[in-house]
Design goal:
The chain is of the alpha+beta class. It has helices spanning 20-42, 47-59, 104-114, 122-131, 139-142, 145-157, 228-234, 236-247, 251-265, and strands at residues 3-12, 80-86, 92-98, 119-121, 170-172, 175-180, 186-192, 213-215, 220-226, 270-276, 281-285, 289-296, 301-306. One of its GO terms (biological process) is proteolysis.
């Protein structure tokens, strides 16, 4: 058995605000990313390489708030975060507040594999990226007219905005993937452009191992999407692992406890995807929707947006 699952963000996703054409674009983007990761697994590749391939595909799609589709910060720039973790040996790599890096998930992987560190940020991370041949793109590559309108609206009201399209359509468009390979190993990866009009070098849960990303072959691999501050305070990804390891509950039970009860208690909104070493997949979210997809070696697959 091998399998992959991904998310493209959670939040308040109103059906009447997403027309048929736009919905198909999102579904096609998720299918392409699922297929990219599944191909790695099907060819005997590792779960780590599979989640990287899936997240890289989402980073290259302007519909999602990561990589090319990253939102604008207060300065009108793109500041991106990413992380990944290998459940086999619990190695991890993470990066925060980098600019012009085409695929932050590749930089996180390079940090894990080519340095003695786990977490790098800002200018230093960019220097490391250039040293190791990570691709950069000019500002124009990341420019998107729709994202720019979001930025101007947020700037006019001096508010930090969660990624959204119109009033009432509130989304946390972090992207992520989890996978199980043929060898029984699981991994997770997450990437984001953060919040529109974010200030002061704000960093959410995405690059924080244990908060937004976690993987351990003993239990599960988890990638989160939501209001990052609350996910950090709840240490969401690691908490799912702890529920399974120390309470002996199933993957589904652990995810439901953390997302539908513990997070809700502190008014945390969003969701997560998770996988265990048996190939069980959980999609848990306390918002009205979450962009998500999966594919298993038993032939089952699908993408969905609404609950």
């Amino acid at each position: 058995m091998f399998a992959i699952a991904l998310h493209g963000g959670a939040g308040t996703v109103e059906r009447h605000l997403l027309n048929e054409e736009k919905q198909k674009q999102y579904e096609d983007g998720m299918k392409a990313a699922v297929d990219a990761g599944y191909e790695v697994l099907n060819n005997g590749g590792s779960s780590l390489d599979a989640v990287v391939a899936a997240v890289q595909s989402l980073e290259d799609c302007p519909l999602f708030n990561a990589g090319k589709g990253a939102v604008f910060n207060h300065e009108g720039r793109h500041e991106m975060d990413a992380s990944l973790m290998n459940g086999l040996n619990r190695e991890a790599g993470a990066v925060a507040s980098v600019r012009n890096v085409k695929n932050p998930v590749l930089l996180a992987k390079a940090i894990m594999e080519k340095s003695e560190h786990v977490f790098m940020a800002g200018d230093g991370a960019e220097i490391f990226a250039k040293k190791h041949g990570i691709a950069f793109e000019p500002d124009e590559y990341f420019f998107d007219a729709f994202r720019y309108e979001q930025y101007k609206a947020a700037l006019a009201t001096d508010r930090v905005q969660l990624d959204h399209s119109v009033a009432g359509d509130r989304k946390f468009s972090t992207v992520g993937a989890v996978a199980l390979d043929k060898y029984g190993n699981i991994s997770a990866a997450t990437s984001t452009g953060g919040m529109t009009n974010k200030k002061f070098g704000r960093v959410g849960d995405t690059p924080m191992i244990g908060a937004g990303t976690y993987a351990n072959n003993e239990t599960c691999a988890v990638s989160c999407t939501g209001h990052g501050e609350l996910f950090i305070r709840q240490v969401v990804a690691h908490q799912v692992h702890c529920m399974m390891k120390y309470k002996g509950v199933s993957l589904e039970e652990a995810c439901e406890q953390v997302v539908m009860k513990d997070l809700v208690e502190i008014e945390g909104e969003g969701g997560l995807i998770a996988i265990d070493t048996k190939g069980n997949i959980a999609f848990s979210f306390n918002s009205s929707g979450m962009y998500r997809g999966y594919k298993k070696s038993d032939g089952t697959e699908g993408v969905a947006i609404y609950r």
